[in-house]
Every structure is written in C-alpha cells, then in structure tokens.
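Researcher: We plan to redesign the surface later, but first we want a full-length starting point. Tokens attached.
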C-alpha cells in the first residue's frame, strides 16, 4: 500500500524535496541553494539548468533518506516561485536565456509604455493584476524582443514558455518529445495572460504583447486526477510516479494551511511576504492595491479565488544584511542582534530594492533607511529590518479589510521567518490579532503534496486535510494602541521617502 507523497518546492533561493505521510508529517527533506545572478542593477536571473540539476539532486537524496521502495510513493506535487519566466527549445530542453526572476525590473519601460494610454489597470478587469514588472507576460515579451532567434523559434512552434513549475514538470515527465507542457490555474493567473473567468489564455492580451499562443503551456487544475505524466524509472525518483499536483508557492501555502473557507487567510514569510485571503468562488476586484488571483482548483470543481498582497522583500532583506553588509554570519543571527536593543531607535528601513509591490505598485521606489543619528548602531538596523516585514504586512491587511470587509480574527503564518519570536510577537502587536504558527510550518511543500494526494485518493477530501492541521504556537498582541498607531504612522512617513527615486 502506498505510504507517502513527494513534494518538490522550487523556491527563489533553493530547491527542496519533502516526503510526507498520511498525517502530513515530514518523513524526509533535502534542500540545495542555487545561484542568484545580477547582470546589472534591477536585473535578477537564475540558471534553469542549475535549478533542474538541484531538483534531481534533492529528489534523489530525499528518497534515499526514507529508504522508500518502488510503489511507496504514490504521487508527486510541485510548487514553485511564481512569475519567474523562462523560454526553452522543445527539442533539446536548452534554455534560450536565463530565467528572469519575479523580482526583476527590466520590463519597467515596457510596462510604462503599456500604461501610457489606458493606465496601470489596463488588463485588471480580465486578469486581476495591474501592469507591473512583477508578472510573467512582459518578461516573455522581453525575451522574444531581445534574445536573438527566439521570436522566430516561437512562431515555428519550437520555443516553449513556462514559469518554473512548467519547467520542472516538463523535465520530470520526460523532457524533449514526451514531457508534459502544462501549468496550473494558479501559476497561469500570475502571467497577466489568463482570463480569470474562462481560465484560458486571453487572445486580446496575447495580441497586444505579441506573444504566440503556441508557446504557452496547457492550463490544468491544481489537483488533477488525469495526471500529466509520470517520472521515468531512470530519473531521480527511480520509478514511475504520477505527477498530478501543481500550485504556485503562495497558493500552495494557503492549501497547506487548510484555508478552504472564504474569509480564511495566511501569510508566508519567505524571500518576500505574501498574504492570501480565500474569497471562495467569487472574483473580488481590488480597489486597494491588492491582486485578484486563483487560490486553487481541485479536479473538475469550480475554481476558488483569493485576494493577495505581495511584498517583494522580507527574508531577502535579512540575506542582504548577511551577504552584502556582513552584519551577521547566518540569517538566524538577526534575532539576537535585534534583541541587543530595546527598540528600533526611531529608525525605519523600507526595503524597496525592486520598487514597492502591494498596495503601492511603485516601480520608481527604492530602499531607504530613515531617522538615523549618531546613536544608531547595527542592532537598531537589524531590528528595523525585521520590523519592516511586520509593517508591510499591516499595510496589506488594511487593504484586504477595505476590499473584503472581513475582520481578521487570527493570522495563520508559515515560512522560514516564523521561527523568529521577536518578529512574530511584533507582528501580533502591530496587527492586534493573534498570530498562529502550525506544527508543520513549511506549508508550501505540504500544500503541493495535498494537491497531488487528493488527485490519487491518498486523501479523500478536505476534511482529511483539516484533521492534519495542528497549532504549534500562538502569539497574542500586547502593545498599547497608542504605541501601535505611533509606530505605524512613522512607517507610512518613511515609505513616502522611497517614491520617485527612479525617473
């Protein structure tokens, strides 16, 4: 009898393979980082072949750790950094160019040109997204327009586009000739090319962006009993296993947190920070700077939608303090350094390294540290860096309340930063609601496992998944309202200083 589900979590800085049992418990985990490539200011790239190599390595390692035999793993789910864009040759599997990462801002001029006549919300009624450098569509056009021979290859049908989920699934299921060229509704909803109502590529937007439809993957449900293909016996898993779950990383975390009812929300603290609010089968347009996106689609059931607040830089700010400034040796050192002071020393750190995402969508913004005096030292900078994550989350939550009218009773949290007690307590204080961490905090990989497991009957229904969810820790708000309001007003003042930096 099958024992496990495998999940591949391909993130912005690393790739993991995790093996889960029926209770949602982690049986084994393997993880490897990949390079971050910065060809020039504002440009961020990954090597797709390096990512596939890491995927194979961690998959083999995780399987080996479990001692699993053929037949022990019943299905594979994939989750991924969203919006990161690549185009490759369907015959050879060779990328025409590096993957352009979601943080990359090289398409600013194109987005500005597209907004010139019809505004930033030109496509929002169809796709739920503003025109911004964040999304895949403008990145595809950049590759077609700037990389020699790619447009001709796309028109011939030789060039394939995919976000990272599509790339990984294509290789897992055999690559050239036999690989499944698919993406699920959640990832498709991040391209700026999929109509939210029809769940199909929008021909009008494709025409405006001059993107050949033939290069786009087939859109499928997030959990698909039909499966899309199986791994090869000579592949990293060593046997034939169906691949049938696919979710963008933030939607995967929503599923992993079992936020299946309208009004339930989660916040993931990773490289960036992403809050999603389940709005059920209703498409709710945002008037407050949020994104309307797909939450998930399970088989033939109706698609479920969400409002999302996307923050570009949170955990990446801690990495920046580590790698660029040498302020800490390892990321986990940030908490001790921040605790070396009683407060932020009246400084604020707004990490608009790639502009500001929700709720501002300002690609002209750049990072600032404000309020410094001779009294300021590295402990204050560390504390301000952590607090920046909480302030940005507060802004997103306020926008969600305006759009949905939902008063959040508690915030479910996950991701690497949720083990930072100082940050989580400050987050509860700033939001004035309890912050709840589950026992399995790496819910992104778990959500992809759930999607695959539901497809093959490893789990029967959503109640099975809800039964797996357990509380690990709750942080209760403790801060006086006057202090909370004063700190937040200071943050809003600091954010204004980031505007109009790039002409």
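Model: Full-length starting sequence:
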């Amino acid at each position: 009898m099958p024992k496990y589900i495998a999940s591949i979590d391909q993130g912005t800085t690393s790739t993991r393979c995790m093996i889960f049992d029926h209770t949602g418990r982690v049986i084994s985990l393997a993880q490897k980082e990949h390079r971050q490539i910065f060809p020039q200011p504002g440009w961020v790239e990954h090597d797709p072949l390096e990512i596939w190599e890491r995927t194979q390595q961690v998959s083999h390692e995780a399987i080996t750790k479990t001692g699993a035999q053929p037949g022990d793993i019943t299905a594979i789910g994939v989750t991924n950094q969203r919006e990161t864009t690549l185009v490759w040759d369907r015959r050879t599997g060779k990328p025409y160019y590096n993957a352009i990462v979601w943080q990359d801002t090289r398409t600013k001029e194109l987005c500005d040109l597209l907004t010139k006549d019809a505004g930033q919300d030109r496509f929002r009624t169809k796709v739920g997204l503003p025109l911004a450098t964040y999304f895949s569509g403008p990145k595809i056009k950049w590759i077609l327009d700037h990389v020699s021979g790619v447009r001709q290859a796309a028109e011939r049908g030789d060039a394939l586009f995919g976000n990272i989920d599509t790339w990984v699934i294509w290789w897992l299921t055999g690559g050239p000739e036999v690989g499944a060229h698919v993406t699920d509704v959640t990832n498709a909803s991040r391209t700026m090319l999929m109509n939210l109502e029809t769940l199909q590529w929008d021909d009008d937007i494709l025409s405006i962006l001059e993107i050949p439809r033939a290069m786009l993957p087939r859109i499928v449900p997030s959990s698909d009993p039909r499966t899309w293909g199986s791994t090869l016996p000579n592949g990293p898993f060593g046997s034939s296993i169906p691949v049938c779950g696919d979710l963008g990383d933030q939607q995967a975390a929503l599923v992993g947190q079992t936020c299946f009812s309208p009004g339930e929300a989660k916040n993931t603290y990773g490289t960036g920070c992403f809050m999603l609010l389940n709005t059920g089968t209703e498409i709710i347009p945002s008037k407050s700077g949020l994104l309307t996106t797909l939450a998930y689609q399970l088989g033939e059931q109706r698609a479920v939608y969400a409002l999302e607040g996307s923050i570009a830089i949170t955990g990446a700010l801690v990495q920046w303090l580590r790698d660029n400034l040498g302020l800490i040796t390892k990321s986990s050192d940030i908490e001790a350094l921040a605790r070396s002071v009683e407060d932020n020393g009246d400084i604020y750190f707004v990490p608009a390294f790639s502009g500001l995402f929700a709720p501002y969508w300002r690609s002209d913004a750049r990072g600032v540290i404000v309020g410094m005096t001779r009294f300021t030292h590295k402990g204050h900078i560390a504390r301000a860096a952590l607090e920046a994550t909480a302030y940005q989350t507060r802004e997103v939550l306020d926008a969600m309340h305006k759009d949905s009218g939902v008063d959040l009773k508690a915030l479910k949290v996950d991701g690497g930063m949720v083990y930072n007690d100082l940050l989580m307590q400050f987050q509860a204080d700033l939001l004035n609601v309890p912050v709840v961490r589950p026992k399995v905090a790496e819910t992104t990989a778990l959500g992809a496992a759930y999607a695959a497991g539901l497809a093959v009957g490893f789990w029967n229904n959503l109640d099975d998944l809800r039964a797996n969810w357990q509380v690990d820790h709750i942080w209760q708000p403790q801060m006086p309202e006057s202090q909370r309001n004063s700190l937040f007003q200071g943050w809003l003042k600091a954010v204004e200083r980031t505007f109009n930096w790039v002409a």
